[in-house]
Amino acid sequence: MNFTGRTRAGFAALLAVVAFASVSPLMAQTSGTVLGFSGFGGFTTDPGGFDVFRDTEFDAAYHFGAALSFRMSPNVVARADLSKAYSTGEETTALAGEVVGFNRTYYGVAVEARFPLSGVTPYLLAGGGMVTVDRTAPSRNYNFSEVAGRLGGGLAIPLSDSSFEFFVEGSQWFYGRVSTGEGTQFDTSVTAGLTFVPDL
After folding, report:
1. What is residue 183's DSSP assignment?
2. 77, 93 in Cβ contact below 8 A?
3. 36: enclosing H helix or E strand
4. Which CATH architecture fits 3-196?
5. Distance CA 83, CA 64 (A)
6. Which helix (H) or strand (E) holds 15?
7. pLDDT at position 25 over 70
8. Residue 117 has what pLDDT?
9. Is 141 within 8 Å of 179 (Cβ atoms)?
């Protein structure tokens, strides 16, 4: 296993957990704290890096997920995410034609730094968590979970005077390739979704 890559991912995840824990007391004391509930979907890059000892062609994955956010101020948001990316591929050499299923589940926490402007809010995010990888095929299967880090950014747009907010986001999860023991995997996702902020 690439120790350096795994150490970086573990350190990023630890920072995210510490950051989330440190802002939790502030959430309880700040009257302006509001909840947000998000649903989203999009595309994730293919997982080809895991099959370095096999020739497998994968399609880009599509993903769906949800998030719970805590808005402490206009500039700081803590969030917890859960999403799953689905992809399929096909062996191209000795086992040509064999269908491969490759799913990844991401779950973690992150902190957003938001920069509200007139009618739009750009933001950056950093965090971490875990990624579960599940490969299924007639000749080779594996399933494991690994500590991961996450970086990204996006753009949030309030929808008129409603309680909904549209957002687009790009982010990258990075973690060790446990199945092959070689290198670090970088999964990049492009996402669009809606956030509902109830008037509590």
Report:
1. S
2. no
3. strand 34-44
4. Beta Barrel (2.40)
5. 6
6. helix 3-29
7. no
8. 93
9. no
